[in-house]
């Protein structure tokens, strides 16, 4: 009994084993390994000091911010303030909340710095890119404020040149080229800004923490210090973040948990269209999308981006059809173009741009089996306009009708759109948000819509809804033909 008790005491007094942590992703292990088991990087696992036993934080009496009844909390200080860029405010849920920390991530060259420079300039000048209207006059008018823009990737002169090019010069916009965390915190103390922009969080480092800038320990320390300053001063902060090869936010996963809002900046390098969507938002929705047009003269919000996805030159040509997709809650009209030509190859080509190739192969197989459209000896090319990407199955019917139009060299009646998912049995399945899609189509001047049978939204004024249950029916309705009486379209008179 005594021996076992002594052994247990000796075991309890053993020092904790040192932990090893990956400097890239933060993965920990009890022993050293040459390759990280999480991110599969070589030579990134290093030893870190063991944590001391026992509690390290003692309780103290709250003196600065004592607990108060929830009904006595002032909510006016937590109202969102517009940034001056309407499309960015749409994603944020109305603007920046005092003390909120926003992380904006995106690929290199997508336009993150240009967008935030425009936001900083508008906030500093107290202007907005949204036309004033009586409905918008619900709050105080914007006023000039002090904005601190910290750049760690470029020199101050380089940022000044870009600001001149995009028209983002404002007297209240202060620029600091710094990479030291202590100096950045000193700038905040000296300037007391109304908005802080850090470009980027991976370039800032603290001398009190080991590791290179952008490492797990450095990013964690920098983010924690900036978040503490934001909460203490009710200072909204926007952090620019890098992304990895797979498009996720670089750095430790805890960075996304610490911040209040995580936004993803997306866009094709060969297209002018840029999309900003919220992945996480504590103050607003996560299904809103902001659309921007990036050009040599700067970045401009697009309140009506449907024109980028439609080509007026292709109107009245075979192989074109219009559909309406949903980006979050936002309907966007999109033109699908298809080209079908005879093939001399054993395996005909199936080439896509902006459309999933496997989805196209499935639609072509359904057309061959259930609509009698022979495409096994034809090369099929399907593309979208404006660099848009089709990610939802609601565009299946438009792809099928555009391909049929190209195969038969037949022009579809003008003013017609198609919305619906094509099943493997040739049936047309309902899709979500059909009422918003039809409303956007009616606003753009379309008068006929081929939709799945069973969807019963009330059509907008001036629009005829043509329900189809099968792909063959959809083809006949789209080309302006007539069905037998038992298959006539349902009328929405109620």
UniProtKB/TrEMBL annotation:
Protein name, entry field: DNA repair protein RadA
PROSITE patterns documented for this protein: RECA_2 (PS50162)
Pfam families: AAA_25, ChlI, Zn_ribbon_LapB
InterPro entries in UniProt: AAA+_ATPase, DNA_repair_RadA, P-loop_NTPase, RecA_ATP-bd, Ribosomal_Su5_D2-typ_SF, Ribsml_uS5_D2-typ_fold_subgr, Rubredoxin_2
Keywords: ATP-binding, DNA damage, DNA repair, DNA-binding, Hydrolase, Metal-binding, Nucleotide-binding, Stress response, Zinc, Zinc-finger
Record's function text: Plays a role in repairing double-strand DNA breaks, probably involving stabilizing or processing branched DNA or blocked replication forks.
Protein family per UniProt: Belongs to the RecA family. RadA subfamily.
Transmembrane portions of the chain: none
Chain segments carrying region Lon-protease-like: 379-494
SUPFAM superfamilies referenced in this protein's UniProt entry, alphabetically: P-loop containing nucleoside triphosphate hydrolases (SSF52540), Ribosomal protein S5 domain 2-like (SSF54211)
Top-rank taxon, per record: Bacteria
Source organism of the structure: Oerskovia rustica
Segments carrying motif RadA KNRFG motif: 280-284
Keyword RNA-binding: no
Residue ranges constituting the RecA family profile domain according to the UniProt record: 77-243
Binding site for ATP: 106-113
Record comment regarding domains: The middle region has homology to RecA with ATPase motifs including the RadA KNRFG motif, while the C-terminus is homologous to Lon protease.
